Amino acid sequence: MVHCSCLLFRKYGSFVDNLRIFARGGSGGMGYPRLGGEGGKGGDVWVVAHGKMTLKQLKDKYPQKRFVAAGGANSRVSALKGSKGKDFEIPVPVGISVTDENGQVIGELNKEGDRILIAKGGLGGKLLTDFLPLKGQKRIVHLDLKLIADVGLVGFPNAGKSSLLSRISHAKPAIADYAFTTLKPELGKIMYKDFKQISVADLPGLIEGAHMNKGMGHKFLKHVERTRHLLFVVDISGFQLSSQTHYRTAFETIILLTKELELYKEELQTKPALLAVNKMDLPEAQDKFHELMNQLQNPQDFLHLIERNMIPEKPVKFQHVIPISAVTGDGIEELKSCLRESLDALASQESDAHHKKQLLNLQTSNTLSYDEPPSAHTLTGSRIHRI
Question: Residues 135, 162: one domain?
Answer without folding.
Answer: no
